[in-house]
Amino acid sequence: MICHRCWHEFEIHELLSVAESDNLQEDPILGAGRGLRFVASRFDRDGNAYDPTGALSQAFACPRCRLKIPRILIHARPIFVSLLGAPGSGKSFFLASATWSLREQAHQLPFACTDPDPVANALLHESEGLLFRPANPGALVTLKKTETGGSERYDETWFEGTPFSLPTPYVLTLSSHERTRPPITLVLYDNAGEHHLPSNARDSAQATGHLRRSAASIVLIDPIQHPELRKACSDADPQVAMANTLSGTPPRQELLVSQAAASIRKMRNLREEEAIDQPLIVAVGKADAWAGAHLADINEQSMFTRDDEGQLHIDHEALSSVSASVRAFLENHAPEITGTVDALCNNVLYLPVSATGTAPELSSDDERGMGFRAGDITPSWTMECLVAAIELSDPGCLFPEEQPVPPGEPGP
Amino acid sequence: MIFELAHTSTPQGLEPGSTGYATVVRTSGMPNHIRRLLEGMSAYRADGTPPMAVCGIRKTRTAGHPITVASLITPYGTDHSGRANRLAWHLAYDEATARQHPPSSVVQWLVDRAEGWNGKNATTSAPELEQINTGETPPHQPDPVLEQAWIDALGNHAIEPHERWVGLPPGTNLVEIVLAILSTIPEECRHEASICSGIDGTARELETRLILVNEESKAHQRLSAGVGRDKVDLSETPPKAVTRPAPELESVRKDESLRNKRTVRETETGSRTRTRHDHLFEEKASKPSQEQDAEDHALINQTSAHEHPPEEQRSSTRNLLILAAVVALAAIGLFLLTTLMGDSP
Question: CB–CB of A151 and B269 under 8 A?
Answer without folding.
Answer: no
